[in-house]
Amino acid sequence: MVLVGREGSGKSASGNTILGRKAFESRAGSSRVTQACERAESASEAAGRGAVVVVDTPSPLDSAQECLALCGPGPRVFLVSVRVGRFTPAERAEVERLARVFGRGFYEQALVLFTHGDGLQDGETVEEEIRANVQLGRLVERCGGRYHVFDNKKPEDRQQVAQLLDAVRSMEGRSRGGMAECELRRRLQAARDEQDAGEIRLILLGLTGMGKSASANTILGCNVFQSKAGASTITQQCRKKTRLVLGRKLTVIDTPGLFDPNSDEKEVKTEIGKSVCYSTPGPHVFLLVLTVGRYTQENKKTVKEISNLFGSVATKYTMVLFTRIDDLEGQTLENFIVQDSVFTSLVEQFGNRFHGFNNRDRSNDTQVEQFLEKVEVLMRSNSGHFYTNEMYEVAGKAVQQKMEEILTERMAQIQAEEEKLKKA
User: Fold this and answer.
1) How far apart are CA 234 and CA 25, in angstroms?
2) What is the DSSP string of 261-328?
3) First to last CA, the chain
4) Which of 193, 282, 293, 310 has the highest local Cβ count within 10 Å?
5) What is the C-alpha separation between 19 and 144, in angstroms, rounded?
6) Which one, of 249, 280, 255, lies nearest residue 269 by Cα?
7) What's the rounded Cα separation, in Å, for the pair 152 and 339?
8) May I ask which residue range the UniProt record assigns to the signal sequence (predicted)?
9) Phi, psi of 30 (to 5 degrees)
10) Residue 25 pLDDT > 90, yes or no?
11) β-sheet bridge partners, residue 83
């Protein structure tokens, strides 16, 4: 789903209502909050209707490329956000401009989403407003008569979301995905070409409590991932966010922490493995997140588990990211690593690629800019190539083969012991 419309119309709030969580920054007012196209996915089935991907867009949206790049294989519906009681000439002009940006078939794939449904007085209906406003009526007509009403002050009302999803699904078969097929294919290919050329995809990995989510927020420059201090994991499933940061388009995937006593370890590893799919066509960089301080046995086990999960080939795509460098109290991160042989060996294992974050100082753009420079150096060393799903599958087969070898060896030992007992 792609949310479009004029600023202040309630796009971001509607995205949050659909997803059932605060995925997009939203506040009342007519000033622009969304600065770039952002993508978020439902953590589970939305209103019992399956997983949902929502793309929020800024206004004005000058190019379809970035938006389409975030919703491959293509958008199912454009939700044209219109505030109840406010369809001005400026709103109409914005919709007409969007139709030019996305090209032929935009209206065939669009549904008018009325927001601020709570603004309707007792007895009033949106149908009356559509009939009373000629231009609004014409917009709904061009969208095939499709419209829905949201009250974003009641995000707990999942019935309104279920009804919207049913309306979207009823569009299938009428438009074959909406835009004229050749037009959509051309625009999507252009979007993918632009995405591959300019997007940087990052996956954060590590032990529970190392600061993965806080680091993801630091990288993106806003609070998009839930984060708080503690030994229990907050992130239960992979989370993905795309934002424009310092002129670079970043996609960041946060993952559950390993070795959380309150989580099933097998399920956690399965979920972490999904991060490769979340970063399709694949991550450019894995960030192994550690805090400055003592290197524990759990840290050591984490590095081993990550290697088992993604294979030894992932090493050349990995950078160590240290958090809480403010605890060094004036000591440089470089000196800290040099003075600890264990950390020195670890960093060397990953090609001496490392960086440090003070996640309490989110206003410090320098630490993020230096981090991105190191990421780009790593990407150049890999000739722009990224870790792929095929590499992940190979790693999985290698682990399975190793487990089978261990099991075969153990069975042989047991059989030998049984034979020995028979002879005794």
Assistant:
1) 20
2) TTS-HHHHHHHHHTHHHHTTT--SEEEEEEESS---HHHHHHHHHHHHHH-GGGGGGEEEEEE-GGGG
3) 72
4) 310
5) 25
6) 255
7) 54
8) none
9) -100, -5
10) no
11) 86, 115
Asked if pLDDT for residue 331 goes beyond 80, the answer is: yes
Q: Which residue has the tokens 């589970």?
A: 44
* Whole-angstrom distance, CA of residue 293 vs CA of residue 376: 27
Which domains are seen in the chain, by residue range? Answer: 2-187 (3.40.50.300), 198-387 (3.40.50.300)
The secondary structure element, H or E, covering residue 206 is: strand 199-206
DSSP per-residue letters across 55-100: EE--SS---HHHHHHTSTT--S-EEEEEETTB--HHHHHHHHHHHH
Residues ≥6 apart with Cβ < 8 Å to 7: 30, 31, 32, 33, 34, 58, 59
Note the pLDDT of residue 400.
Answer: 63
Give the integer Cα–Cα distance in Å for 126 and 370: 51
Number of alpha carbons in the 13 Å side-chain half-sphere of residue 117: 21
Residue of 47 and 323 predicted with greater confidence: 323
Cα separation of 117 and 424, whole Å? 84
And the tokens for 423? 């002879």
Q: What is the pLDDT of residues 362-382, one digit of tens each?
A: 888 899 999 999 999 999 999
Taking the CA atoms of residue 225, residue 230, residue 232 and residue 236 in that order, the dihedral angle to the nearest 10 degrees is: 0
* Count of CB atoms situated within 10 Å of the CB of 91: 21
Query: Could you tell me which residues are beta bridge partners of residue 204?
Result: 287
Q: CA 102 to CA 353: how far, in whole Å?
A: 42
What is the spatial distance between Cα 414 and Cα 410, in angstroms, rounded to a whole number?
6
* Chain mean position to CA 187: 22
- Rounded to whole angstroms, the Cα distance separating 87 from 85 reads 7
- By the 8 A CB rule, do 76 and 68 touch? no
* 76 contacts 45 by C-beta, under 8 angstroms: no
Report the chain's mean pLDDT, rounded to a whole number: 83
